[in-house]
Design brief:
Strand content: under 5%
Helix content: over 70%
Number of strands: 0
Number of domains: 1
Number of helices: 5
Order of helices and strands: HHHHH
Radius of gyration: 14 Å
Structural class: mainly alpha
Length: about 110
Amino acid sequence: MKKDWKVYARHILDAIHKIKRIEQRGDIMEDDILYDAAIRNLQTLSEATESIPTEQQAIFPHIPWREISGFRNILVHDYLGDIDALTIKTVIQQHLPPLEDCMKALLQDL
């Protein structure tokens, strides 16, 4: 039996919160331990987005749902070494705030 999507929404928020805490500890571009921790949490939240129903996703068409869930495969398999710390930092700064707002809004509307 599949878990309720709200569990995954909270899981996404938890991963975002952890990434914020990681950033408070230092620069992921300079510390490979922090970088690895950020990557792990990005993998977790990317995978969790696959369990957010399309009905909820449709409420927020500005969120690149497919790209977020596909990002997990890129992170896990590091296709041709294309992922670097600057890319990860950019993803964190540009894409996590709107995703966080979206998850909070979905959970508040219940």
